[in-house]
């Protein structure tokens, strides 16, 4: 219990530094690439699936976090005056975006009712929403902890029912992936070499999350982005005027994307879909739904950080695990 208190205290001190508690009138700015919440305040709404006891626990956990920060950061129920807010939902797992992830609208924070309803977990996820990554992702962490990657269960393999496997390279392997920390998160699509190594970059400063790691390894398995499908114009409109000039190629259509879709519906929530502001040059959306029927995806497309059933079906289909 004492260790938990010290951990929370450290996080509170960091939040006060990041949000400049000595200057309460400071508006949203950046610490590194962190987008902070306006007025140091996170408006929130809680999905109706939660019981009254759940709601009380969430509210009391946030009040405790705010109090321990000396009211440097605040959490308030969302009103019509708020243009950005957090929506607490019960999806698969406990997770949140890091910092302010949308220009307008909602960003989801999942507190699975079956395993996330404790004070420490609620505060943990809202600290992510405030902009703080895990302590063990610090660049100097190797001085303090050793990560035993060989003991980590690769979730992608498990969720595919072991249709695809990821194993440490041995001298018996003629082609393999070398995970490196270069500039950005990227991978070749599919097997790109006959023999030898192909690189997959997971920049330590921003790529070490489960969804990003799985995203890049799914590229390595051979899958392009969902929004590269040839039929994508029926679902999303690309606003090229808002895309960074040297990143526009990321929105080119790819016939392979359609071949590997197997006639399945377009998946806005795919782990392989960009968010609406990916590579934005001005903070405005680079993609919006093409149809009014899909307008609810305007701010949440690509925000899913879990493999969807569509993602898993495609993997199993391509690798021959289903007919």
From TrEMBL:
Give every Peptidase M12A domain span.
23-322
Task: List the cofactors.
Answer: Zn(2+)
- What top-level class of enzyme does the UniProt entry assign? hydrolase
Its keywords, alphabetically, are: Disulfide bond, Hydrolase, Metal-binding, Metalloprotease, Protease, Signal, Zinc
Q: Which residues bind Zn(2+)?
A: 215, 219, 225
SUPFAM superfamilies in UniProt: Metalloproteases ('zincins'), catalytic domain
Q: Tell me how the cofactor is bound.
A: Binds 1 zinc ion per subunit.
* Catalytic residues as annotated in Swiss-Prot or TrEMBL: 216
Q: Tell me which SMART domains the record gives.
A: ZnMc (SM00235)
Which N-terminal stretch is annotated as signal sequence? 1-18
Q: What is its EC number?
A: 3.4.24.-
Presence of the UniProt keyword Zinc in the record:
yes
Cysteine pairs bridged by disulfides in the record: 185-207
Is NAD there in the keyword field? no
Alphabetized GO MF terms: metalloendopeptidase activity; zinc ion binding
Q: Which one GO biological process term can you cite for this protein?
A: proteolysis
Specify the protein name.
Metalloendopeptidase
């Amino acid at each position: 219990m004492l260790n938990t208190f010290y951990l929370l205290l450290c996080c509170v001190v960091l939040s006060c530094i990041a949000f400049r508690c000595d200057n309460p009138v400071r508006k949203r700015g950046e610490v590194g690439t962190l987008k902070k919440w306006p007025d140091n305040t996170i408006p929130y709404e809680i999905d109706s699936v939660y019981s009254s006891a759940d709601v009380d626990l969430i509210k009391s956990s946030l009040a405790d976090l705010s109090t321990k920060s000396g009211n440097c950061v605040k959490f308030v129920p969302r009103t019509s005056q708020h243009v950005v807010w957090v929506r607490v939902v019960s999806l698969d797992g406990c997770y949140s975006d890091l910092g302010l992830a949308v220009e307008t609208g909602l960003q989801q924070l999942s507190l699975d009712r079956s395993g996330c309803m404790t004070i420490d977990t609620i505060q943990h996820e809202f600290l992510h929403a405030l902009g703080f990554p895990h302590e063990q992702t610090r660049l100097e962490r190797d001085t303090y902890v050793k990560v035993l990657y060989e003991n980590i269960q690769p979730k992608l393999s498990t969720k595919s029912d072991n249709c695809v496997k990821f194993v440490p390279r041995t001298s018996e392997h003629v082609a393999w992936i070398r995970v490196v920390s270069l500039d950005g998160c990227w991978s070749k699509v599919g097997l790109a070499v006959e023999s030898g190594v192909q690189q997959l970059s997971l920049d330590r400063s921003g790529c070490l999350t489960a969804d990003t790691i799985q995203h890049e390894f799914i590229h390595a398995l051979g899958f392009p982005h969902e929004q590269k499908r040839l039929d994508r114009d029926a679902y999303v409109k690309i606003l090229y005027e808002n895309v960074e000039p040297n990143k526009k190629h990321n929105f080119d259509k790819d016939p392979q994307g359609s071949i590997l879709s197997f006639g399945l519906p377009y998946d806005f929530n795919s782990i392989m879909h960009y968010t609406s502001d990916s590579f934005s040059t001005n903070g405005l959306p680079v993609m919006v739904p093409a149809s009014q029927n899909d307008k609810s995806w305007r701010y949440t497309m690509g925000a899913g950080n879990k493999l969807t059933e569509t993602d898993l079906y495609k993997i199993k289909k391509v690798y021959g695990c289903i007919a």
